[in-house]
Amino acid sequence: MAIDHARRVASAMLVALVAALLISAAPASATTSQGADTVELPMTIVGFDPKVAAANGYPTTAPSAAWGSLSTLDDTGIVTGNCGSSFVTLKDVGVRKYTVITGFGVPYAAVSYSWSVNVVGPNWNKTHPWGGGLAFRTTWEGTVTNVVGTGGWYSAKASGTAVLSNGWICKSGGPIANETIY
Fold first, then answer.
1. Which stretches of the chain are assigned E, i.e. beta strand?
2. Contact assessment for residue 82 and residue 69, using Cβ atoms and an 8 Å cutoff
3. CA–CA separation, 134 and 15 (whole Å)
4. Phi and psi for 107 in degrees, rounded to 5?
5. Element housing 130 (H / E)
6. If you ran DSSP here, which 8-state letter would residue 66 be given?
7. CA distances from 3 to 9, 57, 147 (A)
8. Using alpha carbons only, how large is the chain's radius of gyration in Å?
9. What is the pLDDT of residues 114-148, one digit of tens each?
10. What residue ranges define each of the domains in the chain, with the CATH number in brackets?
């Protein structure tokens, strides 16, 4: 029985190691456009929650290989990360009105998240928050529309974390999108 448990733990750690290596080997562009004003950056592992890992049948220790490849920017301008990617879009959608679309994709099912987008511009500083459980999804997207008092140049910065079913806590790379809101 102890041998079966040891095999399961070793198998789970091997799967986590292979996933971490595959994810860190796949480069993501620092400004991959999904649209004219979408910015996408990688997420990185910043912590580990052993209670979440245990509750979902994963080992209660994080494989050290997962921590070995945090986000880096190489000399070609390619950003790599080890825990998926996050994005933000800022769109002018009418008279002094914007829409923000933000989200993330992660390599393991997420059990919870805490996310926000801070939008700043002329006489404007508004944070749009999201959070809660995710029911084992590997992607999440949120949208919000707001009216501003003054037209001008606006920036939207996404930030947040997702807690994955294997215990990893993954943090957004902090993508920033800019747009003129008329």
1. 28-29, 38-42, 44-48, 72-73, 78-80, 85-94, 97-121, 124-147, 152-164, 168-171, 176-181
2. yes
3. 22
4. -75, -20
5. strand 124-147
6. G
7. 10, 16, 61
8. 18
9. 999 999 999 999 999 999 999 999 999 999 999 99
10. 2-181 (2.60.40.10)
